[in-house]
Amino acid sequence: MTDHALLLQTLDSMLAELGAVVQALGARTYTQKASPQGQSSIGAHIRHSLDHFRILLDSVGQPGNAAVRYDRRERNTEIESSSSAALRSIAQLRSQLQKLDATDLDVEIQIEHMIHPDGSMQTFRSSLARELFFAGHHLIHHNAIIQSGSHLPMWPDGFGSAPATTEFRHSQEKAAST
Q1: Global pTM?
Q2: What's the CA gap between 57 and 73, in Å, rounded?
């Protein structure tokens, strides 16, 4: 059994960082488009990212090992238009993550994805740890979209960058300074 404490700590930090960014954006910016080319608001990207955590954590908490269905997201929810609703959701997700046992995340779960626009579904085996990692990585991707279209004076270090990218940049900076 693997101890996934670092994964849970990292996800908690990522959600805390997202909360700080949501607060810094302010209510007006929160509802603006995330990028000039895109159609979705910053709030829509945040709702989408948080949905992956919520759907996973809610599904795992259900009796009978119901399949996780990320495709069954609610759209146009309050989280898309209200930064305070997003902050409440972030706090709730952080609380749920903190209640997980870091040594019990290798449990097998079923993931059901729509694989074709005709509605065809396929079920895959996964683990809670793998899906939590996926939700975190998906959050990074949407953070990058948010960052590309928003103009905060200061972004948290590594916001919107995969850990490997951040590590690479730091190693390049270190090499350049020696």
Answers
A1: 0.88
A2: 13
